[in-house]
Amino acid sequence: MKNIRNFCIIAHIDHGKSTLADRFLEVTQTMDKRDMNHGQMLDTMELEQERGITIKLQPVRMDYKGYILNLIDTPGHVDFTYEVSRSIAACEGALLVIDATQGIQAQTLANLYMAMELDLKIIPVINKIDMPAADPERIKIEIENTLAIPREEVVEVSAKTGQNVEQLIEAIIERIPSPADAGMRPLMGITSDAETKALVFDSVYDSYRGVVAYVRVVSGTIQKGDMLRFLNAKTDIEVSDLGYFRPQYQSQKQLLPGEVGYLITGLKSVGEARG
After folding, report:
1. What are the angstrom distances between the C-alpha of 185 and each of 26, 31, 34, 59, 179?
2. Coil/strand/helix, residue 116
3. How many CB atoms within 10 Å of residue 148?
4. Are residues 263 and 204 in contact, defined by beta-carbon separation less than 8 angstroms?
5. What pTM did the predictor assign?
6. Which terminus, N or C, of the chain has the lesser number of Cβ atoms within 10 Å?
7. pLDDT in tens, 39-63
8. Which SS3 state, helix, strand or coil, does residue 194 take?
9. Domains of the chain (ranges plus CATH)?
């Protein structure tokens, strides 16, 4: 668990969050540049690509210099506050991405305060520094005055050109605590290390596999064939398959504490897979 970093991105709509996620996929070589035939690889829905907005959160697991980076992509629109709250609950850190030409937006602050309440480590990121109208110095003053985060902690990047993206990844590794260091947050309701518990932060229906639950393992180990119970829905299932997001499904034998992955449940209704 010491080498795992679970983080999300908090950003206003059109501040470059999905483009930054693309650069992460490139720098960590999770996806080959030739396979990235269109931008915003984590926006898989047609409407998302057409409008350039993120509607459905999408996790991805990346490997970088011996570390496992789990990015849980979040929607930027204010109507998706619930989805954002589930993503934040599964993480130990958050990137606060701010457009260098626009500054901090009100709805970004709402999501940021949610992350602060759950004691996530916040890394402020000023994006689009390559733009002619960019004014990173003004944004740094805004961050200091509004959020009381020192300007020295701000990372300036250009998601479009890739400038300083590696520096940002290093900051994620250095500053965001691992699941082991962060300890068990009260939200997750853990009473002992021996219990196998996972947080279901999203689920989707697959016409071939049934409901696929997106989980963050908190304690214990989940393996194929295990019998699990969704506590809210009081539904029992047998895990027919599990694995990581790369960002496509990549089947594995087990999910370990602190890891983010998916479970194939065989259920026919998403409502039955509430954790």
Report:
1. 32, 32, 40, 21, 10
2. helix
3. 7
4. no
5. 0.84
6. N
7. 555 544 443 344 444 445 678 999 9
8. coil
9. 4-182 (3.40.50.300), 186-273 (2.40.30.10)
